[in-house]
Design brief:
36% helix, 5 strands, alpha/beta, Rossmann fold
């Protein structure tokens, strides 16, 4: 099965380089919409999407009339205290500097391990559903971090999470084989 991992269109928060997480449900910006409409995307049989507005709007633009299945596990990271702030606003924050250098749990938010496990559970759910329908090409319209976790886990290239940073409206593809339980192999 071919799985296209598409990052949502640009938002105002993305333009301002803010941590736009699971608490901020932004629309895609006018610039983001125009950029999406200027690109070509692969044809798919079904679209799976994060519950966040920016992903739903992107999916509707790219795949009008296609069945969309919301996968709650694909919601963006809860950035807690860092939500809707940018580097300039946070650079003097000791907790932020610690999170950048060591990872771990964001104050008032999620840890990278929590997000990764949630995303992987959602992906297993998608592969199971798509496999049961015998789908050959699907799209996931999700967030940059979601894509980075999935590529790190399944691309098989030996790269790490940060090697898979991706721009708004861009995509990676994975070829996934499944067994009858829907587990990636």
């Amino acid at each position: 099965m071919k799985v296209y991992l598409i990052r949502h269109g640009m938002t105002k928060g993305n333009e301002e380089k803010r941590y736009v997480g699971g608490r901020t449900d932004e629309h895609i910006s006018r610039e983001g919409m125009l950029s999406l409409l200027g690109k070509t995307y692969p044809k798919v049989q079904q679209v799976f999407v994060s519950p966040m507005r920016r992903c739903m709007e992107t999916a509707a633009l790219l795949y009008p009339g296609k069945e969309m299945t919301v996968i709650e596990e694909f919601r963006e990271t809860d950035f807690g205290r860092f939500e809707n702030k940018n580097y300039e606003e946070l650079k003097g924050d000791k907790a932020y500097q610690k999170w950048l250098s060591q990872g771990g749990t964001i104050p008032g938010g999620e840890s990278s391990q929590e997000v990764k496990m949630r995303v992987l559970q959602g992906f297993d759910k998608v592969i199971f559903k798509a496999g049961n329908k015998n789908l050959q090409e699907i799209a996931l319209v999700v967030h940059g971090g979601t894509i980075m976790y999935l590529m790190e886990m399944y691309a098989g290239e030996g790269k790490n999470f940060y090697d898979y940073q991706i721009g708004n409206g861009e995509y990676f593809s994975l070829t996934v084989s499944t067994d009858f339980r829907g587990v990636c192999s």
